[in-house]
Amino acid sequence: MSISISATRSIEIFFSYAHKDEELKNELVKHLSILKRQGVITAWHDREITAGTEWAGEIDTHLNAAGVILLLISSDFLASDYCYDIELVQAMKRHATGEACVIPVILREVDWKGAVFGKLQALPKNADPVASWVNRDQAFADVAKGIRKAVEELKQQPTPQAISQFSSSFIEIEEELNANDLEILTELLIRSGRAEYSARKALCIKAGIEPNQLGFLRQSTDTDFALELINYLHSIDDKQALFKMCKELEVVFKRGKYAADLEKVKSKLNS
User: Fold this and answer.
1) Residue 211, preceding bond cis, omega within 30 degrees?
2) Residue 220: how many CA atoms within 13 Å on its side-chain side?
3) Distance CA 271, CA 156 (A)
4) Which residues of 187-218 are buried (b: 16+ CB within 10 A; e: fewer)?
5) What would the pLDDT profile of 230-265 be if each residue is shown by its tens digit?
6) What is the distance between the alpha carbons of residues 255 and 173, in angstroms, rounded to a whole number?
7) pLDDT-based confidence at 104, cuts 50/70/90?
């Protein structure tokens, strides 16, 4: 799991934020100006979209190209279906596979514990919301320093080595489960029928998960739900729930290739 970046190339930073936080986002952009002038980073947010451009496609392009993804956290961010269910999901997938480094920046006071990004190191210092600082310039300066440090660490890791401290919450599980393992679990979950809407709550309960805490429980398709669930459990490093899910899938896949694939994943979780 690594992010391969040239030591001289600028790293693109993607801002995922709610438009009600645009004023705070703009202040953060200004505090990153010196990094832009030094050629360390380039910054992109949806206000960069030009007239006549298909906005969703443009956002996807930059979200999938960024080396660092900033989540500007507030009540409006958590309430935004697009921020939480689309941008955040894709950001966490890229973070889990080592393609990008995701950094939560707490803008305003809100209960974000238990969110899919909850185990990531947040900025500013002590995850104190920017809006609660007496001097907001100090808060944003602290955020900028944290981003600079993360970018410098990324630039020093051109080969598959330990990645930035902001990605450290994924190191342990990534040493055991790789992207292929997650794809196997997702595929088997779909094939088993346990991802069907009528079976989802029972699956979660058997895996030891409180279904009412999952905002994606009502995803429209089995595939969407399976992807969300596997990536969520992976992101919070809940090996016990993943192991219980494997045991549940064993009931369906008792022999053959699927059973062998499932056993390999289960053995990693049980190691």
Assistant:
1) no
2) 1
3) 31
4) ebbbebebbeeeebeebbeebebeeeebebbe
5) 888 888 888 888 888 888 888 888 777 788 888 888
6) 27
7) very high
DSSP string across 53-88 = S-HHHHHHHHHHH-SEEEEEESHHHHH-HHIIIIIH
Q: If pLDDT is split at 50, 70 and 90, which confidence band does 270 have?
A: confident
Residue 34 confidence (pLDDT): 93
Tokens of 161: 């080595």
Q: Quickly state the pLDDT bin for 173 (edges 50, 70, 90).
A: very low
Structure token pair of residue 64:
């999938």
* DSSP-based three-state secondary structure for 167: helix
d(CA 242, CA 270): 10
pTM of this prediction? 0.56
Give the three-class secondary structure for 153. helix
CA 21 vs CA 6, 86, 131: distances in Å: 32, 18, 11
CA distance 44 to 58: 11
Residue carrying the six token digits 């709610």 = 18
- The mean per-residue pLDDT over the stretch 197-224 comes to 81
| pLDDT of res. 152 | 87
